[in-house]
Amino acid sequence: MQTLQDLQSGKLIGVKSLKISENLTSFPKEIFDLADTLELLDLSNNQLFTLPDLSLFKRLKIAFFSNNNFVELPASFKECQNLYMLGFKANKIEKFDEDILPLGISWLILTDNKIAKLPNSIGNLSKLQKCALAGNKIESLPSSMQNCTNLELLRLSANNLHDIPSWLLELPKLSWLAFSGNPCSISPSVTLQTTLHDNLEFGDLLGSGASGEIYKAFSKELEKEVAVKLFRGAVTSDGYAKDEMNACMMAGEHPNLIKVLAKIEEEKHLGLLLEIISEDFYNLGNPPNFETCSRDTYDENIEFTLERILSISKAIISASKHLHDNNLMHGDLYAHNILVNDTHNCYLGDFGAASFYEKEDDRYEKIEVRAFGCLLDDMLSRCINNDNKLYVKLNSVKEICMQKDVLHRPLFKEIELI
Predict the structure, then answer these.
(1) Residue 6 located in a structural domain
(2) Which among 1, 66, 157, 231 could disulfide-bond with 212, CB atoms 3.0 to 4.6 Å apart, if both were Cys?
(3) Are strands 130-132 and 338-340 parallel, antiparallel or unpaired?
(4) Which residues contact 291 (CB under 8 A, 6 or more apart)?
(5) Phi, psi of 70 (to 5 degrees)
(6) What's the pLDDT tens digit per position in 351-403?
(7) In the chain, how many domains are there?
(8) Separation of alpha carbons 281 and 341, rounded Å
(9) What is the 3-state secondary structure (H, E, C) of 300-332?
(10) What pLDDT does 52 receive?
(11) How far apart are CA 332 and CA 367, in angstroms?
């Protein structure tokens, strides 16, 4: 983190990245001295409510203004032709005008605002791959968005949508979709044992994600060790915490899903008690980064044998079929949400983006089939032995799952790996 003092003293001339959080109420004019070199600008966690014209920032690629006081999306970036990632999460934005964004935007983050209407010009963002709109007041999607044919990830949870438009379900690359917490979304009721936060003895932090943290704990009520997921707040980057809880509980039991034991539902504490798994499990992959946008990343030395790819694929297909048999779309089928160990055991976790849908529409499942195809593609690209019939077969499955025509993709029960 840099300081305003460093910026004003000229110490930061020539930097490519600037991040300042000092309760700024206005855009520091000294940032213009960095216009020739700046590629990443992060002024999150300040008190900004307006921005000047930023057309001089020709090299700017990424800009973040989360947790500020904007009430309208600034028309400051139109001429920033290299800008591909823009984030205004957790502001107070109500107004999103037409034609204010550069056409090169591929990653747009407007989570947790007050937007009721999207501009028709959003359909001009032909390079848009990732769009986060959860936690707004959006009532409908402009039909122009069907021109966003590169869109792969879309977060619509916790809005005021009364229907999911048919054209959305046929976008050729859409793979990760979340829409829970809308008037149009289904929310089946489920009964689960309730426990108290005070009945738990907390231990080590096991992990953290967009919606909360997972701890090891001892349940005095259940008389055994458990994993506890505690949610940070009512709304997460994927939607409402209670919708995630409901999806976890409704998912039911499956060998490749972590069993839910109980829930915590108190004024100050919201969480789930999960069956604890052995410490030899680890994440199959890492979340996307700025460069990969919608695709997961992997440690540099990660390689997969065909045996491992086949084992993981069978498990994920089985778990996904089980979920869709229960009208449940995972919405975030990624390697970073899959836990594996070295003996090929596998769990699909993190239901933050899960959504229930009408069973008679197979397109929801076929969208998720493309996400599986992306996962298979990632693993095959890191395959050790890629010169035999099984590799050819798995590569063919990947192509079928990722084909642009949604209706021609198979359901999970129809995928034949061998």
Answers:
(1) no
(2) 231
(3) unpaired
(4) none
(5) -70, 135
(6) 999 999 987 899 999 999 999 999 999 999 999 888 799 999 999 999 999 99
(7) 2
(8) 5
(9) CCCCECHHHHHHHHHHHHHHHHHHHHCCEECCC
(10) 98
(11) 11
C-alpha separations of 396 from 122, 172, 303, 405 in Å: 34, 18, 20, 16
Pairing label, strands 62-64, 282-283: unpaired
Q: Are residues 304 and 405 in the same domain?
A: yes
Task: State mean pLDDT over 54-81.
Answer: 97
> Which tokens hold the place of 331?
């919405």
- Shared domain for 259 and 287, answered yes or no, is no
Mapped onto helix, strand or coil, the DSSP state of residue 279 is coil
In the beta sheet, which residues pair with residue 250?
A: none
Look up the CATH number of the domain holding residue 254: 3.30.200.20
**CA of 151: how far to CAs of 126, 129, 234, 379, in Å?**
8, 4, 27, 22
Does residue 188 sit within a domain?
no
262 three-class SS? strand
Residue 135 domain-assigned (yes or no): no
Domain that holds residue 224: 197-274
- Tokens representing 152? 């792969």
| Residue tagged 């039909």 (tokens) | 143
Which of 143-157, 247-261, 361-375, 391-405 is predicted with the least confidence, judged by mean pLDDT? 247-261
Pairing, β 328-329 against β 355-356: antiparallel
Long-range contacts of the stretch 40-49 (C-beta < 8 A, 24+): 40/16, 41/17, 42/17, 42/18, 43/19, 43/68, 44/19, 44/68, 44/87, 45/21, 46/20, 46/21, 46/22, 47/23, 48/24, 49/25
> What is the enclosing helix (H) or strand (E) of 87?
strand 85-87
If you search the block for the tokens 């490749």, which residue do you land on? 256
pLDDT interval class at 54 (50, 70, 90): very high
